[in-house]
Amino acid sequence: MTNLAIDAGALLTALWMPTLFKILAADVAIGLIILPCYLWIKKQERCTAEQAERKWGSRHHHLHG
Question: Within a 13 Å sphere around the CA of 65, how many CA atoms are in the beta-carbon half?
């Protein structure tokens, strides 16, 4: 009885392992794709904001000057 349960558990594990690995691999792959994109977008936003600030700042100085 116990051996049967162990065998069933081993069989289930053997069947599930590839699926779990695929799911994990997919999660990791998605994470590796999304994270750099997200960071890049954030960087671009910051750069754009800084450029806009610089542009408006210089325009501001011209008005005063």
Answer: 6
